Amino acid sequence: MKQFVQSSKKLQLKGKKHSSFGYKRTASIYLSASRYSNVFKTLIKNSKAARTAFKNIMVGEIKKEVSELCKAKHDTVWRSGSKNGINAFNQFSWDSAVEETKRFCPLLVAAVSSSLSNNINLQRKFGKTQVSLLPNLGCILGQIVFARKPYTMKFLQEMIGLQMWMSGTSRKAFTRLNHLGITLGTDATRGAVDKIRQGFSKDLTEMKEHLTRNNRAAVQIRRRLFDEEDEEGDGEGVAILDDTLPYAEESDNEDANPNNGRDEDATSLNDTIPFEDEDEVEAILADDLQEAVMITPAERQGLEEVNEVDNEEEVPENELCLYSLVFDNVNKHLHAKQTSRDKGNIMKNMVQAYAAVDRIPTGHLDDKQPTPAEVAEIPCTVFLTNEEEVKTIRLDYVQQVKEVLVANIPCFQNLEYEDCRVHLYEQHSSRKSNLIPLGVLDKDEARIAEMVDIMEDYHQYVPGTRDENPVIIPLFGDGLSVERGFDAQDARINAGDPWQQLQGLHPSIQEWHKRGILLQDTFRLLYSQKSARSAGSLSYIRNSYRQINVKEKVSACFNEATELLRFSTTAYIVASALTFMNCASIDDIPTDLQTQQDDLLLYMSEIAEKIVEMCFLPPNTVSILNANTSQKDIYKYCVCKNDIEEDMIRCNNKKCNRGKWFHYSCKDITNDEILSEEWYCCQVCKVSQTSSEVKDDLVYEYSQMLLWRGIGEMIRHKAIRSNNGPKMLMYWKEDMVEFFKMGHTKYFLCGHRLLMDTHGALSLRIAKQLTWNRTVNVHGGVNRNIEMDLQMEFFNKELKESLKDAGETFQKRPWQDMGKWLVSQNN
Fold it and tell me: Closest Cα to residue 480, out of 745, 737, 716, 725?
């Protein structure tokens, strides 16, 4: 027998082929040869009792495996994930889930896998692509463990329930699918949502505490250095320090403050706030105490100097960024099934907010607030565009016209030109924004008392402690919300400290609602249904190209109205270019078209300059700046308004209101320069003088106005998409005149506050934060930024859809919990 087993020859099976005992002898021979697979195959194939026994063994083993997997001592992936928050769902992987299950249940996983696919890699070919069947296997395993332990092993059902909840599935579907083991019921799903929402502001709270520790550590390090120097001096160092660090609080007893020296947080200070090294500061203190303190009020830099960085390497990358809050009101109209004197429709007013972490660091800048005397010295010129800014805006118009010409006229295609609108923080602005929803409050911001409650709720996210002044952060909103925010602070003006006065939040205006105001003014001027038969009008273009969703009230059709204005502006630019090139269509080639690349680029630039010269109509700000000055005190010539002995030149526009006669030095004209017969002090005078000759041509004036406002909308949106903060502020200056003329009082006041805040009324740190962190980038990428209040509108839309889908369940739940379980949808 041993010789037979050790032989390499093929086993010779004897006996009758169909004998009832022959398969047993065959199985024994296979068993003696350790060929167990053949043993099982032989027995299962020929014996019913063996098949039953094998099945019972497999059933028993799989039961043991599943029971072991479901034991409480094993923290498996299939256990409820809502208790661990949203991170449990973000970190979930089908690969890890299947591998973990395979360790406990190898027989179960092998049996289910073999039934899904013949491929060992669990892949199936669909067309030319290979599709993994791991999610199918994972879903089957998740339903098996859920059937065994439905109260604990419900991760898959929670995940499916959350997906259905966020997609607006009818609540009745949860009950029906729960019977199939696919998802949880309505109450259980809502419970999972409630658990997830509990940590919705955890990241923001941790960031706030980190900023608070860093601020306190920085104050303590600098105070210790000055206290050591003050022991040898006369105490002037401490006075200077307290004057420059507004958040420092003196301690009467040095021993009472155990962190007065170097504490635990101070060791990591250089990783967060780029203050000077301690040894370097002590060396400076030995030479001159004044050089070690922060910037004094007399040495405060302007925001322009702060923004002017030579290269991107000078931007601190490891700086811990702050954050801004954005809020807006949400209105939900609740319809009653039956109305009566005691019961009817209700308009429910709520408030929703989110936090946006800054992408451009500002914590390294001076955070000392200016004195009232310094604020009073802010000139009126910061509210209106000056000559240099008008030139910059005109260059933006030319740049935008070039883009349209290159995109729509064949002879200009493939031309490469330099974009002068690229700014320093392009890379920072292309990063994906970190948005943290802060929930929904059952408060009505139209009531001052409830607005105070709203501000108190948001004030909990302000960095700092009660024993020091708060670190001010912006609170962005639309014009009405900003006004109500200031009203709430005014209502608390008599409180005892800055925390009770709600001074840690600074309401500030945003961009999207401003675009809506300007767009509505444009349609008031240029859109009328009576002009539907006038070729070239907005109403005519709207009807001709079937843009039927455009209405006179643009708040109901913002995107459609914007698209109509841009489409019409593009058509006017192309038509104007063809007129200047003496072409009948875009396919015609101009007779004076240049062939060289540089000459062709110069030719296109000349065409763009002509188009902009035709429509560039900036507001006249000279009369506004001189409105409050006595006529006797004004030197009525030149822009400088100073009577100096210097040669002057006269503007050819007889109605020039900028000074008529101008000094050569003020207009950068040399005596040796040969002037033309007609000289104009600015583009406004040149255009107005030209247009006076055709003042009866209303079609020409309509074309001018459409180009002026259409291109203006394009460049404003371009600045937002690229997160170009200084340009956005520059456009605010230009729009201040229109806000005043058109009666937009709220936005005129909000613009006044914004320009004050960014030009000296607040610290340099807040000024830069208001300038460069005015947008969010939801998905990441270059030129993909959007306005903060526009993202708030997206959140409001999701909230309203959720409230609509909630149905009766929504009205049964307490309103205090609404913001807690609905906010998770934003995550």
Answer: 745
Q: Which of 9-23, 113-127, 397-411, 557-571 has the lowest mean pLDDT?
A: 9-23
Give 405's contacts (C-beta < 8 A, 6+ positions apart): 412, 573, 574, 577, 604, 607, 608
Distances (CA, A) of 804 to 529, 557, 799: 35, 22, 9
Q: Which two tokens stand for residue 609?
A: 């300059």
In three-state form (DSSP H/G/I as H, E/B as E, the rest C), the secondary structure along 45-110 is HHCHHHHHHHHHHHHHHHHHHHHHHCCCCCCCCCCCCHHHCHHHHHCCCHHHHHHHHHHHCHHHHH
Cα 669 from chain centroid (whole Å): 46
DSSP codes joined into one string, 511-566 = SHHHHHHHHHHHHHHH--GGGTTSTTSHHHHHHHTT-TT--S-GGGSHHHHHHHHH
Q: What whole-number distance in Å separates Cα of residue 601 and Cα of residue 343?
A: 70
Q: Are strands 323-334 and 129-132 parallel, antiparallel or unpaired?
A: unpaired
* Strand pairing category for 323-334 and 473-477: parallel
d(CA 262, CA 266) in angstroms, rounded, equals 6
* Most confident range, picked from 87-91, 197-201, 288-292, 673-677: 87-91
| 697 backbone dihedrals φ, ψ, rounded to 5° | -85, 90
CA-based angle 74:77:79, to the nearest 5? 70
Q: Do 269 and 275 meet the contact criterion of CB atoms below 8 Å apart?
A: yes
Confidence of residue 577 (pLDDT cuts 50, 70, 90): very high
Residue 502 token pair: 């709600």
Query: Which amino acid, residue 350?
Result: M
What are 751's two structure tokens? Answer: 């613009």
Kindly provide the residue ranges of all beta strands, DSSP E only, lying in 335-472, ordered along the sequence: 346-357, 435-441
CA 763 remoteness from chain centre: 24
- Structure confidence at residue 21 (pLDDT): 64
Find out whether 137 and 116 touch, Cβ atoms under 8 Å: yes
Beta bridge partners of 440: 352
Q: Which two tokens stand for residue 298?
A: 């007399």
> What integer pLDDT is reported at residue 156 of this predicted model?
86
Placement of tokens 């030095």 in the chain: 665
